[in-house]
Amino acid sequence: MKALMTAVVTLILCGTAHGQTLQTCYKSKWGPNDQIGALNNITADNVTSAAKLVKRGKAIRMGIETNSKTPAFPPRTFSITVLTPGQEYGGSLGETKTNYNDDIIAGWVGIGSQLDGLGHIGIDGVYYNCANGREFVTAAGLKKLGIETVPAIATRAVILDMVGLMGRDPVPEGTPFNRKEIDAALKRQGDMRINKGDVMIFYTGWTKLIGKDDKRYGSVEPGLGVDGANYLASLNVAMVGADTWGLEVVPFEDPKKVFYVHQILIPQNGIMILENVNAEEAVKDKVYEGLFTLGPSRITGAVQAIINPIFLY
Amino acid sequence: MKALMTAVVTLILCGTAHGQTLQTCYKSKWGPNDQIGALNNITADNVTSAAKLVKRGKAIRMGIETNSKTPAFPPRTFSITVLTPGQEYGGSLGETKTNYNDDIIAGWVGIGSQLDGLGHIGIDGVYYNCANGREFVTAAGLKKLGIETVPAIATRAVILDMVGLMGRDPVPEGTPFNRKEIDAALKRQGDMRINKGDVMIFYTGWTKLIGKDDKRYGSVEPGLGVDGANYLASLNVAMVGADTWGLEVVPFEDPKKVFYVHQILIPQNGIMILENVNAEEAVKDKVYEGLFTLGPSRITGAVQAIINPIFLY
Amino acid sequence: MKALMTAVVTLILCGTAHGQTLQTCYKSKWGPNDQIGALNNITADNVTSAAKLVKRGKAIRMGIETNSKTPAFPPRTFSITVLTPGQEYGGSLGETKTNYNDDIIAGWVGIGSQLDGLGHIGIDGVYYNCANGREFVTAAGLKKLGIETVPAIATRAVILDMVGLMGRDPVPEGTPFNRKEIDAALKRQGDMRINKGDVMIFYTGWTKLIGKDDKRYGSVEPGLGVDGANYLASLNVAMVGADTWGLEVVPFEDPKKVFYVHQILIPQNGIMILENVNAEEAVKDKVYEGLFTLGPSRITGAVQAIINPIFLY
Amino acid sequence: MKALMTAVVTLILCGTAHGQTLQTCYKSKWGPNDQIGALNNITADNVTSAAKLVKRGKAIRMGIETNSKTPAFPPRTFSITVLTPGQEYGGSLGETKTNYNDDIIAGWVGIGSQLDGLGHIGIDGVYYNCANGREFVTAAGLKKLGIETVPAIATRAVILDMVGLMGRDPVPEGTPFNRKEIDAALKRQGDMRINKGDVMIFYTGWTKLIGKDDKRYGSVEPGLGVDGANYLASLNVAMVGADTWGLEVVPFEDPKKVFYVHQILIPQNGIMILENVNAEEAVKDKVYEGLFTLGPSRITGAVQAIINPIFLY
Fold first, then answer.
1. Lesser CB count within 10 Å: N end or C end of chain D?
2. How far is CA C97 from CA A32, C62, C179, D127, D304, in A?
3. Which chain D positions have a beta carbon within 8 Å of C154's beta carbon?
């Protein structure tokens, strides 16, 4: 089928080529072929230094569960189906009577714990490193900036305990995290500093609302503000995440700037976003730095990934 | 909808309850509530020792790509669709002109790099820790042994370079890896030994066939034999994987014993299997041990996961 | 991919072949190759006679809507996604600026108005015309009795207005329609009689509950009883339907006989079932017979179809 | 979930409202609320007259099969999965030992025999009856012009045997059907005339290529030309279809006018299109007119439908 209708489709693509001009766009400092952005900030030193933070021998998963009830940005839905192929009516395989279950997913990737790849957010049709949406976005998958291009991620993560800082659990919706709050959290956690190549994870307690008040959970959130996003970008962090559905503060600081923090991080600075990643267990252990590893499922041309980062300390 | 037709369904479940007896089954040594099997072998010591193996600061991804062309066990299929919700016909959001792409998956989980959970393979309808298939398997997902129960995985991995050992690349189909071959590989790699809680990864070069000879790739493979599976289980490894679609040798050593190695590992010993995990880069670096981390996407009730383990050294 | 893993799969199928014996089964009176059952009762005379019933020139659709909110038998779910492939970010095709929307379905077929094909219901693993479930049912589709085999359906339909007969709207759940009620309805509607090859449609008013009391709608229903099913089968009808989710009376007349009316109709007599087909408009017009036509989408190997029969009078 | 994130989404929709102006658009002659276009041409007289054409008592299905191998416009794909919910490992329901198969679809609607609804094709973002794409197109479905709004369709169909006319089977790709060819076909078939409210079906023999030369089948086709489309529209036909994947001639008569015939029929004249509808059996019977009935599955918000029209004569 791949070869089908080539004539028609080629014609169509020619037909769509005219008309769009790119006024502004953000080039990667790692060159025109760069597809991984701020992950370039992670060096071998980041990896070895982070590995040295593994002291207690504890590994926690940061992923929350994804299923048909997980609150999600509309119209996202999710379902899984389990079946027993070839074994209907009591069949099994061979004299070993082998049985197996298999599973099928039909759903949007942006549900539960997610990685927002660099192909997720654009500015007026233009994406990270001046990628033109009309050229690399197809219904069959991204031709650039897809999740399959993400390298192995292993570096130090810094957890910012905003619950501890603000004394509210969860931190209320609409609370912005800007330079002031970020620095205060770092100071409170023992005068920590952020290094180039670090992954930043905010802890707000927000996932506690899931299943209890899904409407509140999904319509608003505390989170990163515009000033905070620019601050973290200036520090050359590798990724930024939070235990909320969208990382950035909602209602937005300026209601006309819709998901502007996403734009600052992703298309402007090439910083991928982690959503619904929960560092609660580390916070309870009063551990705020450790080795963060993430290997998103390498689905070719995918925009996002359902993830489960591992944090070791 | 969840509340619908409860009366009918309850009736149905009552109707199916009789009739099946469990002749033999394998209890977990970690108790009747255990759902994670040999992952219990991983201790804090495993984690800290493995972290010490991170010397060069290199992190590699072991996942291969998953897409509609990835050869897969029939009738498994896979597709992804990318779309721009709410932005049809040139729309964008707010005065920031924010755009976003989203993605939908319709596909079988067992495609590409996979984790076979303990709910994947059974013996005559009975699964790990004597779980009765009729009771925990539903079309809407597993009620036990689902992927969401898998803890953070971080431990030492030992890579066995079977290409180097056998001088064939790829190792030919039908080549069994049993105690003799495993011990020879360990010896060749500097008298390595396997520790309790290790993840074992065979390297065979098999994924080189993908896209070149999909038919050969998917119909046969070199891999773990029955004796080798029992040997690794006796050493209390945490997981076993390979760069092949099914880990175990195909054609099977005994053609009547269909996926018997899967049965030894999963239902008999609670050892999850990793498929299509590729350690080629480490082998090229002549590195055979390191820190292995894996956080499978926590899809509730899933049997398997599309994975991308991270290996650090 | 179709050619992949043939060796393994052949082995597996051999492995499952033994063990099941068919104690009883129902042969088709139209021969061992028959796949359409009672639709064989429809002759050219049925078609021409039914066409003569088209007097007012009115055509009504009997289908209800299918969407994510349509109450359905668990765990059935449904979703549709609309997208604009190749036109992201304001693109269009050619100087004609052609745009198009496309749509994707991810859902269970048994939602909304349905045709239950002869591969839907079996007795202890055996289906219509002694088809052995283990042999013709595969995860990739039915190899026999699939919806694609259904011929063009055009014949007289007789509508039985059970609301009018019983003076209850809707007819209460648990109300069985047996020979007595069927004959009474026919008599009330002008001493109608049922001919060989007719489609029978019960009108109960039940779909009025959709969106108002989905739980009641989907957990119980009035409908055909065991005696009524045998009666209609003895009259050689072509199909039987109703404006309920399951046609047959629920709670079942005998709670231990689960969907027994389905078994009488489908595997015993080769009579396909129509669910959620609504004849309300004809009932309001006091028209109880007309030309019924149905062409189910010919999805290869499908068990059911989402339908919208047309009734002309 | 439907209630989730209302605040955010409302904001977004406000944000996208500005900016698009509708230069030209085609209003329906049936008023601003019209959603069914030329189907309004079908009157009770059309229905009763067409029913009188049913003489032989023959009913044929015009639908071809839809499955994973059906050639389709890229990137459309299709799969069906059959499973036995709640009956895994030999279970059945009740003492009747009831079994059932169920089926799940994951696929694009535009595969196999299709109805192109009025929401399928637009002109620079504007659809039939001046519907603004930005307002009625959502990822969760069309808010206007969806397939669920299509009424029962029953009227006369006229089959135009272009194979017979042109003496080529199949008619070669790139052969346009314009007024001249249409009139010649009508004359050849006994001086037939087209009535207001008729459905026009071209027979080209093109589906014979499916499975034999899918590439040719799907990349080109004979079909309706621009002049022919305007001619049929001027005659107030109800629908136009053919036994090809796209009805209109490909290569297009003017290569810069991409799917211009689709635009003339759908957004300009409100005439829905039928694709891959095969009248071969009637042509073999030398029958060129009859009663055409169609009830597309009423999936809410769907753009298209997989169809199987019934033709009686």
1. N
2. 31, 38, 62, 12, 20
3. 59, 293, 310, 312
